[in-house]
Amino acid sequence: MISKLIQIKPATYELPQEGAMRTRGLIIASEKQLDIESESLEKPLEQVRNVACLPGIVGYSIAMPDVHWGYGFPIGGVAAMDIETGVISPGGVGYDINCGVRIALIPIAYKDLKESMRETLLNQIFRLIPAGTGRGSTGTHAALKEDDYKKIAKLGVQWAIEQGFGFYEDLEHIESLGVLEDADLQSVSKEALARGKDQLGSIGSGNHFVEIGAVETIFDPETAKHWKVEQGQTYVLIHTGSRGFGHQICQDFLNEFIQLGYAKNLPDKQLVAAPIKSLDGQRYWAAMATAANFAFNNRQFILHGVRRAFQEVCNINPKDIRLLYDVCHNIAKMETHPVNGIPTKLCVHRKGATRAFGENAEELAPIFRKTGQPVLVPGDMGRASHLMVGLGNPLTWCSACHGAGRAKSRVQSMATWKDKEAKEYMREQGVQVIAHSYRTIAEEMPDAYKEVDIVVDAVEEAALAKKVARLRPSLVLKG
What we know:
The protein contains 14 helices and 19 strands. By secondary structure, it is an alpha+beta fold.
């Protein structure tokens, strides 16, 4: 399928419309990437083609440069739907609803953290923030009751702040101010409520993490100055989502939609989707928004744990640890974009993709309207992550990549590192990593991922977002 791609702009390729496709595909990738990944891209491009068959799709079926195979939609996929004729797809959001990333800045240079202090800090974060499959609260709060869930659904992150987990100043540094409207607990199953009740403030498993390191390189001094990002400064990245709560909601609606026949005439039943305007579509929308608000709260609780650890180990006031931004990268949102020159309300699915609004976007808090929104691109735990600024490119519905993207499956990575000293290897690379199991570390080794520098270069070349700073990880807590 690579041979069918037609370059239309720098790092931007069209996949021709064929067969049952209702539109063309759009692939964001550099020439270097296409050469390196010619074989591994075939299956994700098949999914791009499948997504193009969905009713009501507007514009392109889009793949970001971190694209890889996912459930129904590719991970790194973007698709916008007409709200009158289009559909909402659980597979287009993903199992981990509102999986996302937030970055906070610490008022100390990383080099000024003594070696002994670094290890103590990592161990304290590991003690305060549960990580791993099925692990939940450490007792920082009681198990959620129905009334708590109702407030989370209605208030989003404001609920956590009212419980003492953060500051009101955090709100304008969170996408959508930390709350999606239309959340409704009545659309959520008892199984989902049971799975989520003790999971706020926990990382979960897989590729989720807390990462601490130094701002290594500044590419855009003007934007960095506006955001108060300095070279050498200590940063914290937090990557997690809605845990078992969101996973159960996704599974519930996938099962229900398939049973109701919504997968009929689609090239892959994993694409199953209900009309946005239907009762079923609206119920999923309300449940998804509820899970998104749960995820915002989860990252807020984790940031509270990080702030507490820095206070206890480094004597840094929690209020001085500044949240810069929090982004969603598994979500569907109602947004207004120009279609044939006319502002049009669309349902934009971003699965493994980040919103990348440019300057003057009305949806952004005032501080970011002057620059465009921060775009957070975690790479892998051995090389780098990136902080970018959105350029508001209408071709991708103001979207950019969400990370480096996997180059190997977890099974392949585990096989590579099964009989090796992965943890010691990471220490030799200058990275201390901690996790509950060796398997987690082996599955998440740097060679399991694409090179994030190549991915962000493609994003910049395609004018989706611009590099602001390169971040170098040193302390990593894996899920």
